[in-house]
Description:
This protein has helices spanning 46-65, 68-84, 86-97, 101-120, 158-171, 185-197, 212-221, 234-246, 269-281, 298-313, 331-346, 382-385, 401-409, 424-433, 471-475, and strands at residues 9-10, 12-14, 17-19, 26-30, 37-42, 128-130, 137-145, 148-152, 175-179, 205-208, 227-231, 250-254, 259-263, 291-297, 350-353, 372-375, 392-398, 413-414, 416-420, 438-441, 457-458, 476-484. By secondary structure, it is an alpha/beta fold. It is globular.
Amino acid sequence: MKDNLIxxxxxxxxxxxxxxxxxxxxxxxxxxxxxxxxxGLTRSAADDIKKAVAAAQTAQPAWAGLTPVERGExxxxxxxxxxxxxxxxxxxxxxxxGMAFSAALGETGAAIAQGEFMAGEGRRLYGGTTTSAVxxxxxxxxxxxxxxxxxxxxxxxPIANIAWKVFPALICGNAAxxxxxxxxxxxxxxxxxxxxxxxxxxxxxxxxxGAGDEAGAALVEHPEVGVVSFTGSTAVGRHxxxxxxxxxxxxxxxxxxxxxxxxxxxxxxxxxxxxxLLSAFSNxxxxxxxxxxxxxxxxxxxxxxxxxxxxAEALRVGPGDxxxxxxxxxxxxxxxxxxxxxRAKRNGATVLTGGHRLIDDTHAAGCYLAPTLIEGVGxxxxxxxxxxxxxxxxxxxxxxxxxxxxxxxxxxxxLTACIHTRSIHRATEFxxxxxxxxxxxxxxxxxxxPHMPFGGFKQSGNGTREPGTEALNVYSELKAIYTNIDSGAx
Length: 490
Ligand code: NAD
């Protein structure tokens, strides 16, 4: 592990240079592995955000003046350097999040793939052509940049979250101000360094560090930020939509989930078990697409529960490549999960396994929660309707397909869903009727691909989709162009 990759204080990137917030204040970044301070991050306030937005505004016209292919080539230069530096990225991500180095490397690869896909959009960036009712008139649409994009992200998969927003924003010809997550400041800072070294013109990508209700809020409120793209909790997303909506900025919200995984009586139980464990516990359950509601047919419930509890108890928890998952990102998140589990117990829930912090010598200093499985909760209970964003899942016994589908849809969220069955009839009906932006047959609730749209129904978002080519709709204005020909001038 190279410790010297992370500076003592993580600065902002504004107009191609590193700089500290005007106040000189910092926030401590604490390791979720051992509770020790890793570094400080500069604590940006409204004035610092103004400088970053001004830099983006100044740089944007020249960036938009390049052809999309030229912008794509610039993005390719960034992804090539990311590949050269992928081990450094993985080291930083593992240090900040506590996830295993191998998992961090995999995430970096996914971020690079996202960049390569978006760079290729430079050769497409399709508009449309259509017919006209009028003789000698032609109709088409073209994509144009919005201007300055304000990008706000969560810490759970830090480099993937950056890639999902920065690359589509840039290929469309916008300049961007990225507000890093306060739990993963160094990953964002390092990405800024790579972009700079790859020759991205100064001011096209500015990266600000700080607290959500200070730096993040100032970005959302800034009148010159034309599109705000946010990945985070539903509560904060709702607030952002109200503030940015007031000034009619475009808003894209990628929010939380409480995703169902259904195990039918005709499922391959070994396959269902493997994917349930991965969906509920990998990355310590810190995925918007994690499975936190496990619906199991009555006739296989007892058997599957036994397999699942045994599987969960066999998981190794720790920060190493040999472990199945690491710590949750901070003490506050851990305390929140423990409190919700405690209230569920008081309301009569049964904790099948886990439900507590790991306090043995190797785990005591970190934010480690034992793999937790709970049963005996109602569909409207707090633990069934609140996203915990940790290694906690509830089991529900369902009578048949129709009650299962009903329960799957009885949620304020609608991000992802999965069914395990051998029946094409059940699989098709489920994927058609489940209220979710992503529906999967016989695998996990997570695992999206760079060229596919991702986003949620109901309170999991506001109807936008990122990434895929659908992300271009978030970051571009569509202009309708009519050309009228004077046939006499031919
Ligand atoms: P969070 O909402 O607390 O914070 C997310 C980001 O928003 C952080 O950068 C934070 O600093 C910033 N922020 C906080 N308050 C703000 C404000 N008032 N104004 C502007 N910015 C503000 O979320 P979190 O707990 O860090 O992340 C976990 C959440 O993210 C979960 O709900 C998870 O499901 C969601 N998530 C969604 C997706 C998706 O694609 N749908 C992907 C990853 C994570």
